[in-house]
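Incident review: delayed structure delivery

Summary: a single-chain prediction request sat in the queue longer than the usual turnaround. Root cause was a stuck worker, restarted by the on-call engineer. No data loss occurred. The affected request and its eventual output are reproduced below so the record is complete for anyone auditing the incident later.

Affected input:
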Amino acid sequence: MVSTEQIMKFLPHRFPFLMIDRVVDLVPLDHIVALKNVTCNEQIFQGHFPEWKVMPGVLIVEAIAQAGAILLFSSIPDPETKFLVLSKIDKAKFKRMVVPGDQIRLEVRWGRSKGKICQVKGKAFVEGDLAAEAEVYATLLDIADIQGSKRPD
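Output delivered after worker restart:
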């Protein structure tokens, strides 16, 4: 089991953009199962959509990416010296709406890695039904290499 404190060590995201509430299974270099509880208090629902609250598909893919980042960081030495940036989303499909009260079960499998590029394949389920799936690619950077470089505004 991965504690909330460990999740926050692996991911730089914080409220309102932290999309992982709990990790229920993790096997480094293989897979992760994580949960995201969707509540009516999510800030995104103020505008998407006030009358009919639907979680944006892009945020479901972000949750897949964040679960994949935890899987990656738990699989490499010295993860505290690395920074991960999203570089590509492929084969994203949305099958079911996700609404307040739903719990998303994220099942993410290690795909492949080549050089600094890593790939994971993830699926998001609600009550056993496939809500979304995607392949996510990220670039693993050394923090030392990016410190001092100008950050985007």
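Verification: The longest helix spans residues 57-73.
Action items: add queue-age alerting; document worker restart procedure.
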